[in-house]
Amino acid sequence: MYYKIKKNILYRKYKKFGYITDNSMFGYRMPFDDYLYPGEEYVSESGAVILNQLNKTPQHIDDIVDRLLSIFIDVDSDDLKRDIVEFFDMFVEAGFLSRGKSYDECNNNDNSSIGTSENIGLSMQSASCDFAENIINQNDLLRSLHIEISNECNERCVHCYIPHKYKTKSINPELFYRIVEEGKDMNIINVTLSGGEPLLHRDIISFLKKCRELDLSVNVLSNLTLLSDELIGEMKKNPLLCVQTSLYSMDESIHDSITKVKGSHKKTKNNLLKLLEAGIPLQVSCPVMKQNKDTFNDVIAFCNEKGISAAVDYVIFASYDHSNCNLVNRLSLEEISRAFDKQATDEYVDYICGQAAEKYKLTAQDPICSICRYYLCISAEGTVFPCIGWQANVIGNLYEQSLREIWETSDDIIRLRQISRQEFPKCVSCEDRGYCTVCMMSNSNENSDADAFKINEYHCDVAKLIHHKINSYLDNK
Fold first, then answer.
1. Is the peptide bond before 382 cis (omega within 30 degrees of 0)?
2. By the 8 A CB rule, do 420 and 411 touch?
3. What is the pLDDT along the chain (477 residues), one digit of tens a residue?
4. Which residues lie closer than 8 Å to 418 by C-beta, 6 or more apart?
């Protein structure tokens, strides 16, 4: 019998445990997708040693047993083989591994669909969330890096939180390769490549190739206007790669009025369809602002027709230089109300209610967000900041420190990790808290003094409005 890790699955061995996951938490899927995915599992140290024998090339069970006999000494080979087969088969049934009587059959059983008709929980002692909670510290899992490989951009989007005057740099290739190598040594799983416009970087194809060689999940955030056949060819080679782009309206003139580049809509849409044809997972981001408030729903309809995930946000972020110059494009409360009515469906309302229910469960002691707990962002200049959009809050410099030093020893990171919801007392008991996300980045950007703890009342009013709209929708069903 042959076994391998499926191509859509990521596995990492840490010092005291193993971690195996599908790509759904890093990739893009339809917002109301009810397909069952394997999810994630934590594996004990001994289980991790066994899983570590596998990669994405089929391997015969006898070869695996022979290698493990040098690790698990004084164990009968037949007993070891039986235990390993039972262990692997549980992961096969859960959708993480592929199995076959021959090398080719094992490969052929690794289809692109991850998940099973019944997503079984791994019941063995070696894989449980209770186990994970007992051994994982806050800085054990740096899972994701968001790297702005080029903050230069060929568009001039009116709502962008990065002031255009700062879009002047591209990352040094040597620094990029160092970052992803250091990240892989720390067992990162995902890398997001963004800008500006990342496709402006002349080494983008080499960057993608390196990420593929390191078995990294990759998200590319791009306007797609510079997409080439060569680039699509490289993207197709990584089954863990997804692409996000922005489409503001199906009306060319409205889209182009936002990007300030004539013809940008046609290029973005055409190249989006090329990626769809190539089978690359996609997400369309459609922030709603004054320019597209009457036509954004056409983008949702287009994406639903094409089977593309679409993300809509009624509130744009303020620019990170605290100037708020881009907020003239932000919707008023009345405009948000009308936009919600355009989008409201039973599925959408159920989705919002599900998210709200999870937020209402949070306590005052819970972290305010995932800030500095799972990921970091890195600028083209090598500065490190807590999350996308908070570039003004520099917490390290990779020309002066290693990635591990910043993650494990930075006083700024330690301080940010310790911030809990109780430091926002008004929010802890707010009846609208299920429809709001307390965002320190957003707070900081909107306040001229960069105060991350002072919440603009506009966000409170939006949460109250959405809560009211949801209740009214449900009452009228």
1. no
2. no
3. 999 999 989 999 887 788 899 988 788 876 556 667 788 888 888 899 999 999 999 999 999 999 999 998 888 999 999 999 999 999 999 999 999 999 999 999 987 454 443 443 443 444 444 455 555 555 567 889 999 999 899 999 999 998 877 778 899 999 999 999 999 999 999 999 999 999 999 999 999 999 999 999 999 999 999 999 999 999 999 999 999 999 999 999 999 999 999 999 999 999 999 999 999 999 999 999 999 999 999 999 999 999 999 999 999 999 999 889 999 999 999 999 999 999 999 999 999 999 999 999 999 999 888 888 889 999 999 999 999 889 889 999 999 999 999 999 999 998 998 999 999 999 999 999 999 988 999 999 999 999 999 999 999 999 999 999 999 999 987
4. none
Distance CA 394, CA 383 (A): 6
Instruction: List the end-to-end C-alpha distance of the chain, in Å, as a whole number.
Output: 55
Residue with tokens 């080439």: 228
Cα distance between residue 227 and residue 208, in whole Å:
14
How many Cβ atoms are within 10 Å of 220's Cβ, its own excluded? 26
Going by C-alpha positions, the residue among 144, 177, 183 that lies closest to residue 375 is 144
Give me 367's structure tokens.
């972290």
Partners of residue 217 on adjacent β-strands: 190
Q: Are 4 and 59 in contact (CB under 8 A)?
A: yes
pTM of the model: 0.90
Kindly report whether the peptide bond that precedes residue 196 is cis, defined as omega within 30 degrees of 0.
yes
How many Cβ atoms from other residues are within 10 Å of residue 441's Cβ?
23
Distance between CA 235 and CA 29 in Å, rounded? Answer: 17
- Integer-rounded Cα Rg, in Å, for the chain is 23
Inter-CA distances, 460 with 288, 403, 436, 438, Å = 18, 36, 7, 9
